[in-house]
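Table S2 (text version). Query chain:
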Amino acid sequence: MNVIRKIEIEQEEKNKMLKMYNEDKMSLQKIANTTGFSIATVHRILTEMNYIPRNNREQALKYAFNENYFENIDCEHKAYWLGYICADATIYNQTKTDSGILKFEMKKQDEELIFKFKEDIHSNHPIKYYTNKQFKGYRSARLVLRSNKMVQDLAKYGVTANKSLVLNFPEQLISNQYVGAFIRGYFDGDGSLCLYSNEVFDIKIIGTENFLNTIKDVIQIKCRISNPKSKAYELRISSNEERKKFLTFIYKNATVYLQRKYDRFQLFLQKH
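Corresponding structure-token output:
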């Protein structure tokens, strides 16, 4: 019969592990890698020394970013990111063990947006990549930010957890000079500009009835808003004249956008 011998560790080594965890803010896995012990041994030793496990918020403190970024929407980039978050980011409310969370996740081919957002908020957070087991070949890029302040600021514009079915167009943005950038951000997250047979373009945006009707009113475009198959509504622009009006409005003086959609916009202008 095999007998598993409990590893005896000097007190000095135990103290070193505790310091790595408490002062150096190292994870259990990193401590294990550094000391050469297994993660189970590290956990056992720290437990014997009555360590206090960090919650998710405390573990995130080693990363920094501008948590006040959305305090005021006073530039094109802030309006764009607010629009994108309305469409395609996830908000989690504060819990007993974790702070409010803003999560960006998109297919890897669009990861340029995460890098641009990180630069704007001066973030040193890592971007993590995941493979979807249900869809072969699909990889996503993810950025997770923990901040009660940022989540609270976003809530001022109606951007909250479970927003997809109740989101209204923020009143503060309707007459804002950067409303075009805001709609562009939303369009990059939940809109499509498709080209069929190298000639026919189609523009579609998904959202709540209120949100889409406000887009229609702000840009004053002729379009169709319907509720085809689900709870989400769909805005479609059917004429080239109205498509050009919409695209010109949202891309006016644009400096931040999803490149592949911007390239289709340029192609549309060439053909129309």
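Notes on Table S2: The beta strands are 89-92, 101-107, 128-131, 139-146, 191-196, 200-207, 224-226, 233-237. Residues 1-6 have pLDDT under 50 and may be disordered.
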